[in-house]
TrEMBL record:
Protein name: Ig-like domain-containing protein
Lyase keyword on record: no
PROSITE patterns per record: IG_LIKE, TSP1
SUPFAM superfamilies recorded: Carboxypeptidase regulatory domain-like (SSF49464), Immunoglobulin (SSF48726), TSP-1 type 1 repeat (SSF82895)
One Pfam family recorded for the sequence: CILP_5th
UniProt source species: Umbra pygmaea
Localization: Secreted, Extracellular space, Extracellular matrix
UniProt keyword annotation of Ligase present: no
UniProt main location, coarse: secreted
Length: 1237
């Protein structure tokens, strides 16, 4: 115990002797009493406090934080402090660098510790007097009593006596000393000073010679003093000579007074302004191009304007503009009365069509980044940024292109541009510049570790390891030899790749396994595989395919969907954002722009595209007010309505349409979660700074108005859109709600108008119950765009970590890349309780080598304010999510407790086992940074994207996995099918061409009660470089046929015959099919056998337990039991081939095995029958005779004689084959004798 003493207190020795030895030996770690206070009696220690842990930057036991959590347990002014570790070691004895202060508390910083140590976990306590009576600090000195200058007065200051314990009313705390001090003071001497000179007044003349004046003021503290000097100064000005008279050349008329334009008395410029759809534009502003800020006229309701007194001619240019339209500059050439017709196009925000590319350069070289944006009007200003900092245009001399010369390593980093116009701004994707310092290699020559899983029967002696390090070269860009370095995109880029490989042999115990391991990496030409987007377009309500639909990228038509709705798009290397607009030529489906994600490393990504069928049109009278409901769901009120005033419809030539209108309004209702996949665009907008930000929708609608007679598309003028506020569950969204339209070329939503809150009542269509409802009201014109959105920007955002695996073992080495993970934000109900039927936003991301991070809305206050529905699709196949029943297992789901309970993870079959298992739902609870359990994923704050992307595999994450039988693939030349850039050109490469992948499968039928493993060994057959050498091994377990008893089949991959990587000579691969078990070949497909015999050379099939063949070069079909598919992505080729093999057809697809169709080989694999009793069975039936027989056999084996009637059993290490045979024969003879008896 530490005790503070008052200076006037008297302590006797007996009191000190009463202290315990423990208290006397207890030491304070750091602080002593730093400020004397008046106390009485013995002081007391508080309890121990521990509010921080040493993770992160260190251990911080701040006094301010302790008071926040334990306000009543710490006195106002502690007199001492003690710090110890949780292991009860004093801070001074730990050897750690620590800090403390009675005002701030105690803290220990990790980075200050020697030898890389981290701080211990400390707790502290404070010493407080039982009765605290103390003076506060002296207040500041009060003002001097004298006010006049050069005078003497008195000033005072005070302090208060304080006590933390409550005292009876009117009782003053007993502090010693005065509560007030006084001292003499004096005022400043009397003085007079000039203020600073004021600015110079304007010159007395506009040109020629004149004068200007400036003044200052004398500031005095007494009338007895004066300033020295003059109060004003005069200076000559106007040295420039006066210009000559106006030089404005006016072929007609005279110059105006300000010489800005020509004036023609009696001349009138008249005109009309229309939109691109022919509708008159009201309120357009007319100005002269030389003075665009001075508005000289405005258009009336019919789009007309008059501009009197202005001459026509090439020198007179008119500038016409209106909000949400692109400005136009035009001229008039008539001599007397001019007529101008102007067409305004809708303003479009800038959109980047050429992004800067990643570059690598050596120090001292130069580089160019390019940027180009489109829009209406076209962007006229470009800004370049380096690591978020704006580059000075005067220093770097850039426009849309940025050139950097004499590069230095510190110039490495991210570069991006921002394009701006009157309509807005947009930022490009960042490009990374890597500047390699002089003397440093372009690539690290040492390969990275890359573990290859060995076959299940391969066990390396001495290590028992199932993996072998084959090495790997990271596919990073490097600085190669360029023919010209100032291009927007480097021609023939260079990447780090395999420079050297060595053939190795893996000792598997019973056999040897060849492999080619990477020993050196180097800089070489990049492998640029094809990047594809595949998919199928179907209608959301009944999955009917969109047949022969047109596909547009921008204004260019790029393809047509097939009969079954399928499509394939080739993505160019410079594509950053892929926007495809699907248009139905039959006009039964709404035009649907989709933003597709794709894998930049190559291969194809499959997308299941949903589109909405147009609502059946209704007949409305164009001369009347018409109301169309938005969101007609049975039993629920509409979300809003569209009100079209009378005579609002117009034709393309601007003529008002007065007949019957065929009106079709299709509403995508967020209350129905099945419509989420059919939503157009990707629900993003671009703010004023050029950043792309997310929107949260309350509904989208597509409008289609047509002339009843000739089906001509009609536009509409001012249309009102009403949104029922009862459907806006978050009241804070109401003031931020906007009406948006979709740009079909960019897939970006652009603002149409704001909503204003109004207590408008509605009794439309006899809905009396709607009379008391209020609406948000917005206005819009229906011109070129026909897709609209009721959205609000949302800034409560997070990221969700998801990984996909090859199986439910969830091995790190078996992560799947290229899986499309989709997250749908579900809409909250009142009180933030999730509504499982409604959605507010969707996002999709492709998994990489470290999973995927999906953006989502989240809330920090209420865990279930937002929830999400997450799915995973790979090549059209839905992956299964980790199960949540019958018991929540954190090790399977991938999220630890107690955060898992807070997230409330539920797979889609959680409450109904009959439902599919391919999705899960979670609460999007924003992690609490002060809770250690929530700082390790799977939900990350929006500003922690890098932490999410780089999270280790043992961090919390959600999981998907493929449902398939046991299989194994081994390649002598390692290749990762999920990263096509890892391809290596070698004669033994399984895939000889990185641009095209051919997958071959053979269907093997197995007759037997059990499923068996089937292996294919693939060797070189006829090519001189590979003959007899192993390409690889494939293992697959047969799949049970659910409709045929005791039958299963395996779709077994084998190495296709064809050209090798040199594209010089064909190799007929030698294939061996080996069922593993008690199997015997009982059938070969007759067509396959005939083909192999007619295409020599043939392979011998002398063993009935296997099958050998030289693989066919021709792509045989299901009639032969061979399935061949060629694709630009190996996984897609294999998935299609497997689906056809399961189905037993050449064009079908199935995940249910049909073992009797499309079979190449048939094996009989019966279970082995028991022909004699086992030792265990004989010991149970006749133990005495069995033990005697065992004893005799063992003595004979060791050359021993039987002595007496001893029954002692002698153990033997082994028996020779001959001895074992004779012994077994005797045992069988003995057993037969027993049976006869």
């Amino acid at each position: 115990m530490c005790v503070s003493l008052h200076p006037e207190s008297v302590w006797n020795s007996s009191l000190l002797r009463n202290w315990s030895q423990t208290d006397r030996s207890r030491k304070l770690a750091f602080n002593t009493l730093t400020e004397a206070q008046q106390t009485t009696g013995l002081t007391e220690w508080t309890s121990w406090f521990n509010i921080d842990h040493p993770g992160g930057n260190g251990d911080y036991e701040r006094l301010e934080a302790i008071r926040f959590y334990y306000r009543e347990r710490v006195c106002v002014r502690p007199v001492a402090m003690e710090a110890r570790t949780t292991d009860w070691v004093a801070a001074a004895e730990t050897g750690e660098v620590t800090h403390s202060s009675l005002e701030k508390g105690f803290w220990c910083v990790n980075k200050e510790q020697p030898y890389g140590r981290i701080c211990s976990n400390y707790h502290v306590r404070f010493q407080c007097p039982p009765v605290q009576v103390y003076w506060t600090d002296w207040a500041a000195w009060g003002p001097c009593s004298a006010t006049a200058c050069n005078d003497v007065g008195i000033q005072a200051r005070q302090r208060k006596c304080m006590s933390v314990q409550p005292l009876p009313l009117l009782l003053v705390p007993p502090c010693q000393g005065p509560h007030m001090e006084r001292r003499e003071c004096a005022t400043a001497p009397c003085q007079a000073k000039w203020t600073h000179w004021g600015p110079w007044a304007s010159c007395s003349v506009s040109c020629g010679k004149g004068r200007r004046v400036r003044r200052r003021t004398c500031v005095k503290t007494s009338e007895t003093v004066e300033c020295v000097g003059r109060a004003g100064e005069i200076q000559k000005c106007g040295q420039n000579p006066c210009p000559p008279k106006c030089k404005q050349a006016c072929p007609e008329g005279i110059p105006s007074d300000d010489c800005s334009h020509c004036v023609c008395e009696g001349h009138i410029i008249q005109g009309e302004v229309f939109s691109i759809t022919g509708v008159p534009v009201t309120g357009a502003m007319i100005a002269l191009a030389s003075q665009p800020k001075i508005i000289r006229a405005r258009t009336d309701s019919k789009g007309f304007f008059r501009l009197p007194g202005v001459c026509s001619g090439s020198s007179t240019q008119l500038h016409i503009r209106k909000e949400r339209f692109a400005p136009v500059t035009t001229t008039s050439n008539s001599s007397r009365s001019s007529w101008v017709r102007v067409v305004l196009t809708s303003a479009e925000k800038p959109y980047v069509i050429k992004h800067p590319e990643d570059k690598v350069r050596y120090e001292g070289q130069r580089v160019m980044f390019c940027c180009e944006a489109t829009g209406s009007p076209k962007p006229d200003k470009y800004y370049w940024y380096h690591n978020g900092t704006l580059l000075d245009r005067n220093v770097w001399k850039y426009e849309e292109d940025l050139v950097l010369r004499d590069l230095r390593p510190e110039q490495s980093g991210h570069y991006y541009c921002k394009a701006s116009s009157q309509a807005g701004s947009i930022k490009s994707s960042p490009a990374f510049l890597n500047v390699i310092a002089r003397g440093m290699p372009a690539c690290n020559p040492t390969p990275e570790s890359h573990l290859i899983r060995l076959p299940i029967d391969c066990v390396q002696p001495g290590t028992d390891s199932k993996f072998y390090n084959a090495g790997h070269c990271p596919h990073n860009m490097c600085a190669g030899s360029l023919d010209f370095d100032l291009r927007c995109r480097d021609s023939g880029g260079y990447c780090c790749g395999v420079q050297k490989m060595e053939s190795k042999v893996i000792d598997c115990g019973s056999y040897k396994l060849p492999i080619k391991a990477v020993t050196e990496c180097g800089c070489q030409k990049c492998v640029e595989p094809k990047v594809l987007v595949r998919g199928r377009v179907t209608i959301a309500d009944n999955n009917e395919p969109m047949r022969f639909g047109h596909m547009f990228i921008g204004k260019e038509r790029v393809g047509t969907t097939g009969y079954n709705g399928g499509f394939t798009l080739n993505v160019t290397p410079d594509t950053k954002r892929l926007v495809v607009n699907f248009v139905d030529p039959t006009n039964k489906i709404i035009d649907t722009p989709k933003v597709f994600i794709f894998d930049k490393r190559g291969g194809s990504v499959y997308h299941e595209v949903k589109v909405m069928r147009k609502q059946e049109p209704i007949d409305i009278n164009a001369g009347e007010t018409n109301t169309i409901m938005l969101g007609e769901i049975k039993g629920e009120d509409p979300i809003g309505e569209i009100i079209i005033p009378p005579n609002s419809f117009h034709k393309n030539n601007g003529e008002v349409y007065k007949g019957t209108v065929k009106a079709s309004v299709t509403f995508i209702d967020p209350r129905n979660i099945t419509t989420a996949a059919a939503a157009p665009g990707d629900l993003n907008f671009v703010d004023n700074e050029g950043d792309m930000l997310p929107l949260r929708t309350y509904g989208m609608f597509s409008v289609d108005f047509r002339d009843e007679a000739n089906q001509e598309v009609l536009g509409a003028g001012e249309v009102q859109v009403l949104l029922d506020t009862q459907h806006v569950k978050m009241q804070e969204h109401i003031p931020k709600m906007k009406l948006w339209s979709l740009n079909p070329d960019t897939g970006v939503w652009e603002e149409e108008s704001d909503f204003h809150y109004s207590p408008v009542t509605s009794g439309v269509n006899g809905r009396s119950k709607r009379e008391e409802r209020t609406f948000l009201i917005g206005n819009m014109e229906i011109r070129e765009r026909r897709l609209f959105n009721l959205d609000v920007p949302e800034n409560r955002r997070c990221y969700v970590k998801v990984r996909a695996y090859m199986s439910d073992k969830f091995l790190n080495s078996e992560q799947l890349e290229g899986v499309v993970i989709t997250l749908i934000n579900l809409e909250p109900r009142p009180g933030f309780s999730s509504n499982p039927r409604a959605w507010g936003r969707f996002d999709s991301v492709i998994t990489g080598h470290n999973g995927a991070c999906l953006p989502a809305f989240c809330d920090a206050q209420v865990p279930d304010a937002y929830t999400a529905y997450i799915t995973g699709i790979m090549g059209g196949e839905e992956l299964e999510a980790a199960p949540s029943t019958p018991k929540m297992n954190p090790n399977i789901i991938g999220v630890t407790q107690p955060y898992l309970d807070k997230i409330n993870y539920q797979r889609s079959d959680h409450n109904d086992p009959a439902l599919k298992k391919t999705a899960f739902r979670i609460n999007l609870a924003k992690p609490n940074p002060n809770n250690f359990d929530e700082t390790n994923g799977p939900i990350y704050p929006y500003n922690s994207l890098i932490a999410c992307e780089n999270a280790p595999v043992d961090a919390n994450h959600f999981r998907f996995f493929r449902v398939e039988k046991d299989k194994y693939e081994y390649n002598v030349v390692p290749f990762q099918e999920n990263d096509l850039t890892s391809w290596t050109g070698d004669y033994l490469s399984w895939w000889p061409n990185p641009q095209e992948f051919r997958a071959c499968y053979i269907k093997v039928k197995v007759q037997g009660q059990k499923e068996v493993m089937v292996r294919s060994q693939n060797h070189g057959g006829t090519h001189p470089e590979t003959v007899g050498q192993l390409y690889g091994i494939r293992d697959i377990r047969s799949t049970r046929d659910m409709h045929v008893a005791n039958n299963s089949a395996a779709c077994l991959e084998f190495k296709c015959s064809g050209m090798l990587f040199d594209q010089a000579t064909v190799d007929r691969s030698l294939i061996s099919v080996l069922p593993q078990g008690n199997c015997r070949r009982v059938g070969i497909n007759s067509l396959l056998e005939e083909y192999l015999n007619k295409h020599p050379p043939t392979s011998q099939n002398n063993h009935s337990h296997a099958f050998n063949m030289l693989a066919p070069v021709d792509p045989l079909g299901h009639n032969y039991g061979i399935y061949t598919v060629t694709d630009q992505n190996p996984r897609v080729a294999k998935e299609i081939a497997i689906g056809r093999c399961f189905d037993g057809t050449s064009d079908g697809f199935s995940r249910e095995m049909k073992s009797n169709t499309g079979v190449a080989l048939t094996f009989s694999c019966p279970e082995r029958t028991v022909t004699r009793e086992s030792l265990f069975q004989r010991l149970q039936t006749n133990p005495r005779q069995t033990l005697s027989q065992m004893a005799r056999d063992m003595r004979e084996a060791q050359g021993l004689q039987v002595q007496g009637r001893s029954t002692r059993v002698v153990t033997y290490p082994f028996l020779s084959p001959r001895r074992r045979s004779s012994s077994s024969n005797r045992r069988r003879s003995t057993m037969r004798t027993q049976e006869r008896q």
